[in-house]
Amino acid sequence: MREIAIIGATASGKSAKALQMAEEQDGYILSIDSLSIYREIDILSAKPLKEELERVRHFGVDEIFPNEEFNVNIFIQLYNRAKERAVESDKDLFIVGGTSFYLKTLLTGLSTIPEISEDVQGRTKELLENPQDAWKFLNSRDNLWASRVKSSDRYRLEKALHILFETGKTPSIWFEQNPPQPIISNQIEIWNIDIERQLLRDRILKRTESMLEMGLIDEVKYLLSKYGRDINPAKAIGFKETIDFLDGNISTTEELVQLISTHTAQLAKRQTTFNRTQFRDFNIKSID
To answer: Rounded CA gap, 157 and 141, in Å?
Structure first.
């Protein structure tokens, strides 16, 4: 079984390329997209069509509901399940999506975390009622680690406090003593899709216009009515701008399209930078 990763900026054509290669080589696909993981978020996520999902077995698509937690540890569980199925079926596994951080985690691994007691969980939860105070507390005990964590990053802040309270060691010392181990042990092929910047911007604009035509606003209305605003997907590009539109802070659909397109292009630039800097030590092949 081979493992092949396809990376690139949003709207660069990663999913279409992965589908083509998986069909040609009779493989499975593991999505590393931060929105396709959720059920009922179909238009906003630009997830594969139903017929595409039927043609090739996908993992990481429609796995959880929008009000459920998703993090890198859950993704690793998905990866292990996908790999196990691929090995059993003698299939290649294609890993594709815009959240390249998950791919980097597979390549570099995660440090082990101690089992967290109920007492420590409660103590941490109480402190996190005010994230800024929680960050200040962490900074007073381990300013090196606190400098890497934003007070708004509840997941990493909680993780650091769990380690501190459970072990009595600072996160810096804990992770030094417990270095990460790679999760993908064999050599993985990484293909990067190169695309000219203006062409990518044109694709982003066209895709955004298509989302509006397909019913993006109605999809967001439905999600808000069912799950409310306090869900992680509501922070995503496209979701938050549509909320502003529904609140009257954006006056026209034309302005909505422009804002989503601009913010998506900015995201694409960040993704390109991440891919260029974080995978420089791996053998990456280019796809035009």
So the answer is: 13
